[in-house]
Design goal:
mainly alpha; rod-shaped; Scaffolding protein
Length: about 230
């Protein structure tokens, strides 16, 4: 007798046969990564030179230009290090709910980046002081040595006005640090040009007293105390 029991296909016994997921459902969107701050742009306008820069000679102007370049490079390096530190600080916040070892590594990186940012800020401060002091100080390094530069930086920004006031007060307290005025060069001595209208001057020809007039001979002999007989 033939069995009337319905037979199911073999695939029906697998787990996939009972999945009711719709394949036309869209994939879940991934959460976007947080964007960091935009890269620091170069200064749109160059910093103006310190007062009195127009009185410097060629060597002083070259030194001032070099100081300005150092200051701009130091500021740029500080901005880059600060951005890196901020990015790592954000990653620390993201890793708080993850594995602790990853959090520790991110924390160490953030601390190292913060130290680099502080070092870059210190270099930027010193470059700023040297540039501002180049016009009035005999040695701009003295200005940085006598000031506590940490007082003139807030959240990575340099207080240029405060530095200028501090440098002026420093010169009042220690006037020996001021640059001495350069001595005026002595005027060049000029030799008068010969007058072409006077012609060429020649030394007179020697007198031949053997044929010279008697009076001229007597005058010459009188110089030696000798008199001619009449």
């Amino acid at each position: 007798m033939q069995s009337t029991r319905q037979s199911w296909p073999p695939a029906a016994h697998g787990a996939d046969w009972f999945r009711l997921n719709r394949h036309d459902d869209p994939e879940p969107a991934e959460s976007p990564e947080p964007k960091g701050d935009p890269a620091p742009a170069d200064d749109p306008e160059p910093d103006p030179g310190p007062e009195g820069a127009d009185k410097l000679g060629d060597a002083g102007k070259k030194a001032l230009d070099a100081m300005k370049r150092d200051r701009a490079e130091a500021k740029k390096a500080h901005a880059a290090e600060k951005k890196r530190a901020d990015d790592l600080a954000r990653k620390v916040a993201e890793f708080e709910d993850r594995d602790k070892s990853e959090l520790e590594r991110a924390t160490n990186k953030a601390e190292a980046a913060e130290k680099r940012a502080e070092a870059a800020l210190s270099r930027a401060l010193k470059a700023e002081v040297r540039a501002l002091a180049s016009a009035e100080f005999a040695d701009p390094e003295d200005a940085a040595a006598f000031l506590d530069l940490s007082q003139y930086a807030t959240d990575g920004d340099i207080d240029t006005d405060g530095l200028q006031d501090a440098l002026a007060e420093l010169l009042e307290r220690k006037p020996h640090l001021r640059k001495q005025a350069a001595a005026e060069p002595e005027p060049k001595k000029t030799t008068p040009k010969p007058d072409p209208s006077q012609g060429t001057r020649k030394d007179p020809a020697p007198v031949d007293y053997r044929t010279a007039p008697r009076e001229q001979l007597q005058q010459r002999l009188a110089e030696f105390g000798v008199r001619l007989r009449r």
